[in-house]
Amino acid sequence: MPTMKKRRVEREVASPAEESDAHSSGSESTGAENPSNENEDSNTATSTPKTFKDLGIIDSLVEACETLGYKAPTPIQAESIPIALQGRDIIGLAETGSGKTAAFALPILQNLMEAPQSFYGLILAPTRELAYQISQSFEALGSTINVRCCTLVGGMDMVPQSIALGKKPHIVVATPGRLLDHLENTKGFSLRALKYLVMDEADRLLDMDFGPLLDKILRILPQKRNTFLFSATLSSKVESLQRASLSNPQKVSVSSKYQTVSTLQSYFLLKPHKWKDLYLVYLLNEMVGKSVILFTRTVHETQRVAFLLRSLGFGAIPLHGQLSQSSRLGALGKFRSKSRDILVCTDVAARGLDIPSVDVVLNFDLPTDSKTYIHRVGRTARAGKAGIAISMVTQYDVELFSRIEDALNRKLPEYETEKDEVMTLAERVGEAQRYAIMEMKAIDEKKNTKGNKFGKGKGKRTRDNMDQEEG
User: Which residue numbers delimit the Helicase C-terminal domain (predicted)?
Assistant: First the structure.
């Protein structure tokens, strides 16, 4: 196993920047992770550099940061960038929203300017939306040097992607399955001269069974390269990937596994399952005019709740892994542009996505684990802003919710409601429920196959659909 030095930093409060996943000030993480090995070196940083120039970033990239509203480095940027500029491999432990994208993009772009070449950097991401977001961040940060990026994801026509590769981009951002398809089938595409490999959300990449594909990709890539591995947690799978792909890495940790930011107000709402839709509509009436992300557990429930809310006049739009790629991007675009104020989604939107100005997160269905809860509620209260998270708890969820509170190491307050006001909605909500059921039946009939209903009959995943989130 290669030797590995570790640096640990407490979360220094930098001046809040724009709410970008490329630079938001730690939406889920507020503390430092304890060292896992007592024999490792642990040098605690005492201050965060005030500017990107202090980190060694050149003026043209500093200018790009200022244009994008990045006012000061976040902890992960302050620790990672100087190490990356020294040519070291990095293992970065940081949650989504902590500024990871700029932490690896800025050093890559700076070194690209010194020795320009095509196919200079490869960034692997677990989901299509995250891949597009990373590509946009590279293009924005590299706008002053005219950096060319290419995004390779499943669910899209390979021909336009092959044409884009033929134009010799500097940076390729890809999901593993589609990248391997192009490496095997696109004439003239090779990464033999690659200088930088980044594996973002590595724990999620491995959770989605990309392991065998990553092994194939690593065998194709040149041994002499710089590698950055960013992950929320350092699991045994991630450690195995680290040993296979990094050389003498330095570890930087600025995250804590189960913490939320102080500006987030978290509540629960304990009500019988049969009244769940009623209380959901009551809550949304209370929050009219605010942007809301509403999480459900299954694709079927995501679609049903979206139909329910639309029939009641709410601007709700669904987002889940069984939508076409154009529909998924369209849903995100409408929510970001505020033409729709409620995004009903599965955990496809729980992690990695930068959706600015979310006022409220509603857990219509509780997540099955505490880590996912942290990622979900981290969609709000970003970059120093306030936010509200409310989790709906039924009689079937009490034990699950108790485990979430234990992980958070605190008891959440209950959100106050007026039962009489809620019950006045019963007739209208009942009609909306019947409408939603009819719409779901119509969708199932249109599918015209028994095993291909929403949330059912997944079957074996191919490379082309592996980069969809689990429903």
Answer: 279-423
Residue 465 lies in a domain: no
Provide the token pair at 378: 């981290």
Among positive and negative, which fits the CA dihedral 129, 134, 137, 143?
Answer: negative
Neighbours of 396 (CB within 10 A): 10
Residue 384 within a domain: yes
93 neighbors 233 (Cβ within 8 angstroms): yes
Does residue 471 contact residue 298 with C-beta atoms inside 8 Å?
Answer: yes
Check residue 455 and give left, alpha or beta (phi > 0: left; psi -120 to 50: alpha): left
* 146-178 pLDDT, tens digit each: 999 999 999 889 999 999 999 999 999 999 999
Tell me how far apart the alpha carbons of residues 429 and 408 are, in angstroms, rounded to a whole number. 34
Q: What average pLDDT is seen over the chain?
A: 84
In a domain, 78, yes or no: yes
β-pairing verdict for 226-231 and 196-199:
parallel
Q: 126 with 146, same domain? A: yes
**pLDDT, tens digit, for every residue of 383-430?**
667 899 999 999 999 999 999 999 888 999 999 999 999 999 999 999
Computed on alpha carbons and rounded to an integer, the radius of gyration of the chain in Å comes to 22
State whether 205 and 96 are in the same domain.
yes
Token pair of 21 as six digits:
């996943």
The answer to whether residue 189 sits within a structural domain is yes
| Last-in-domain residue among 253, 278, 310 | 253
Cα separation, 25 vs 289, whole angstroms: 25
Predicted confidence at residue 468, as pLDDT, reads 62
CATH number of the domain where residue 155 is located: 3.40.50.300
Let me know whether 224 and 303 are in one domain.
no
Average pLDDT over residues 426-437: 97
Residue 374 pLDDT grade (very low, low, confident, very high; cuts 50, 70, 90)? confident
CA atoms within 13 A on the CB side of 441: 6
pTM: 0.67
